[in-house]
Amino acid sequence: MSEMLANTSKGHIEVRNFSLAYETIEGPVQAVTDTQIHVKPGEFVSIVGPSGCGKSTLLNAVAGFLKPTTGIVTVDGERVNGPSAERGMVFQQYSLFPWKTVRENVEFGLKMRGMPRSQRERAARTLLGLAGLEAFEKHYPEKLSGGMKQRVGIVRALATGPKVLLLDEPFGALDAQTRVIMQQILTNMWQRLKISVLFVTHDIDEAIFLSDRVYCMTARPGSIKAEIPIPLERPRQQSMMMSSEFLALRRGLMSLIREESLKAMGGEINDMGMQGLNIELHGHSLADVI
Amino acid sequence: MSSPALVRHPEDSMPATAIAEAGSAPAATPPAAPPSFGTLALRWYRLNRAGLRAITIGVTSLIAFLLVWHLLTTYRVVFFVRFTNVPSPLAVYASFTKAMHDPKFLMHILLSCRRIFIGFSLAAIIGVPLGLIMGRFKLVHEIIFPVAEVLRPIPAIAWVPMAIMLWPTNEQSIVFITFLGSFFPILVNTLHGMSLVDPVLVRAAQCLGARERSIFREVYFPASLPHIFTGLTVGMGVAWVSLIAAEMISGQYGIGYFTWEAYSLVQYADIALGMIAIGVLGLGSSLLIRGAGQLVMPWRST
User: Fold this and answer.
1) B206: nearest CA partner in chain A
2) At CB < 8 Å, which residues of chain B contact A?
3) How confident is the model at residue A270, as a pLDDT?
4) What string of H, E and C letters represents the secondary structure of B133-201?
5) What does the alpha-carbon distance between residue B104 and residue A184 come to, in Å, rounded to a whole number?
6) What are A198's strand-pairing partners?
7) CB contact under 8 A, A89 and B205
8) Residue range A62-84: average pLDDT?
9) Which residue, A31, B57, B159, B244, could crosslink A54 as a Cys pair with Cβ 3.0–4.6 Å?
10) CB-based contact A266:A52 (threshold 8 Å)
């Protein structure tokens, strides 16, 4: 099964001169501007940034749901013109079909491709087995826990053997323990399938733990502020999150994002608040000033 | 020999033997000493207390209702409302037993059911697809919605004179009234269901390679089903309301006509019989729809 799904040399995502604006009554609002990113075949890349920075917009453009205002999105040199089974997507809200059983959900992409029933049933069972969900194949999603739902979501997205996997804050709704387990499962699947992954999250630890590279975005209008390679060796263990190397990366990313978060909030808070935050930013406490 | 796995083994095998025992002798479920009948009865009672309570209270209140009805009619109470000519429950029961052997009464009921079946089915066959298409294609919605909104507030009963002019036979005009009554609730609820379809599910389907037709069949339709069934249930209720009114005004047969005729012929017990028959038929048909809903939407039953 895994050989069938493996894409060793495919899945090169390229986003060039990308910008995206929404039309509003006051004129166009720039959501993302002047952005270039790429994901090499088999690479795991994360995008982090303050909320509202347009990281999900960028991901949705790669998925084909949004058309760039300027610039181009290509996968393996082919221009993205709309959603396709070549680019599997995992959503924060799981988005499993409630009227389909776990197995029928996983089968969906294969059914759309016209695979005969018995064949796709077998394929779905194999995949569910890999995710430890074979016992739940006949359950409806509503009966599953959040972690199980998202495992089904990932398996469903992988079932059609996509070139790339796009994940939009997939573990954002899960509790801390489940989240750690899910990260491990995703890493295992990624390593087995050698698929390119573009992962959007606001969780810095998650981004570092999972990725080969992390893009950090600026506040709206979003653009790439920094590109940070993660040289931690693989396979990664949970204990690595305490290593000095990890913590250094974390500190770096944290300060980058905090700067942007403050910028994003700048318009919303009054001068007093702004002063307080600036003081904190420069390493003094409020008490020092008073 | 002393590895933890081996030590734990006897414990693990316990449930297996318990299951085997239960399989051979279903009466003695727990592996320990079988509980006495009293304990089992007590346990069953504790588990089903809420249900038993509802049944007990429900039956009691029905009996109380019959009793009050009986007392009001036997003493011919006049207190704002006059119970002088209202038939007693026993009189109604007597006319019920008589009616059960009367082929004419059964024919009235069958005819009403047929009208409901045809009118309601037509409303569902036209209303559901139309609602789905209107929900999916903006142009169709923009064209049909204003007309529907103008016609919708007109009660089906108000259509009676027009229906008589439109249709050559009385039977057709009554079916038409029934159709109209159920059509709009079905259409409006289907539309509502379509408007609530989670766009993320549509995106998920698109990402899995689904095209327009498949998305319609695999996402929009099942996602709207709960609201479609709400529409069918409401539509069935309005269908009965409209049917009975139409039968009373222009009918020659049917349970509504039977009830009105009973009044004209001073058969007071038959009035109540007709009313109860209408109530039972309405209840039965809405139960049928609920059952169909549970069959069609297995993911929603708990």
Assistant:
1) A83
2) 198, 200-201, 203-211, 214, 218-219, 222-223, 225, 297-299
3) 47
4) HHHHCHHHHHHHHHHHHHHCCCCHHHHHHHHHHHCCCHHHHHHHHHHHHHHHHHHHHHHHHHHCCCHHH
5) 74
6) A45, A166
7) no
8) 93
9) A31
10) no
The 10 Å Cβ neighbour count of residue B8 is 10
The runs of H, that is alpha helices, within chain A are: 2-5, 55-63, 102-112, 117-130, 146-159, 176-193, 204-210, 244-266, 271-281, 286-289
Q: If DSSP states are collapsed to H, E and C, what string results for B2-69? A: CCHHHHHHHHHHHHHHHHHHHHHCCCCCCCCCCCCHHHHHHHHHHHCHHHHHHHHHHHHHHHHHHHHH
Antiparallel, parallel or unpaired: β A13-24 and A164-168: unpaired
What would be the CATH architecture of the domain defined by A2-86+162-289?
3-Layer(aba) Sandwich (3.40)
What's the ipTM? Answer: 0.85
CB of A35 within 8 A of CB of A224? yes
Q: What are the phi and psi torsion angles at A170 (to 5°)?
A: -70, -25
Give the HSE-up count for residue B279: Cα atoms under 13 Å, Cβ half-sphere: 6
Chain A hits for B214, Cβ within 8 Å? 112
B211 → chain A, closest CA residue = A112
Work out the minimum CA distance from A65 to partner chain B, whole angstroms.
8
Check: CB of residue B160 under 8 Å from CB of residue B174.
Answer: no
Residue among A65, A112, A115, A169 with most chain B CBs within 10 A, to mutate: A112
Edge-to-edge strands of the sheet including A13-24? A27-39, A13-24, A70-75, A78-79
- Classify residue A202 as exposed, middle or buried by CB count within 10 Å of its CB (0-12, 13-18, 19+): middle
Measured in whole angstroms, the distance separating CA B213 from the mean position of its chain's CA atoms is 31
Nearest to B183, CA basis, from B239, B137, B222, B112:
B239
Chain A residues whose beta carbon lies within 8 Å of the beta carbon of residue B222: 97, 99
- What is the per-residue pLDDT across B244-282, written as a single tens digit (0 to 9) for each? 999 998 778 999 999 999 999 999 999 999 999 999 999
Taking the C-alpha atoms of residue B70 and residue B76, their distance in angstroms, rounded to an integer, is: 10
The single-letter code of the amino acid at B224 is S
d(CA B192, CA B145): 12
Tens digit of each residue's pLDDT (9 = 90 or more) over A102-141: 999 999 999 999 999 999 999 999 989 888 898 999 999 9
Q: Which of B198, B208, B222 sits opposite A108 (nearest CB)?
A: B208
From residue B10, give the alpha-carbon distance in Å to each of B4, B16, B30: 11, 10, 18
Q: Helix count (H) and strand count (E) of chain B?
A: 13, 2
**How many angstroms away from the CA of A134 is the closest CA of chain B?**
19
Please list the residues that pair with A38 across neighbouring strands. A14
Q: Which domains, and CATH codes, for chain B?
A: 34-86 (no CATH), 89-300 (1.10.3720.10)
Task: Note whether A95 contacts B219, CB cutoff 8 Å.
Answer: no
**Paired tokens of B208:** 């899995």
For chain A, the structural domain boundaries read 2-86+162-289, 100-161
Cα(B102)–Cα(B92) distance, integer angstroms: 15
Report CA-CA distances (Å) from A46 to A196, A245, A288, B165: 11, 18, 38, 70
pTM of the predicted protein model: 0.81
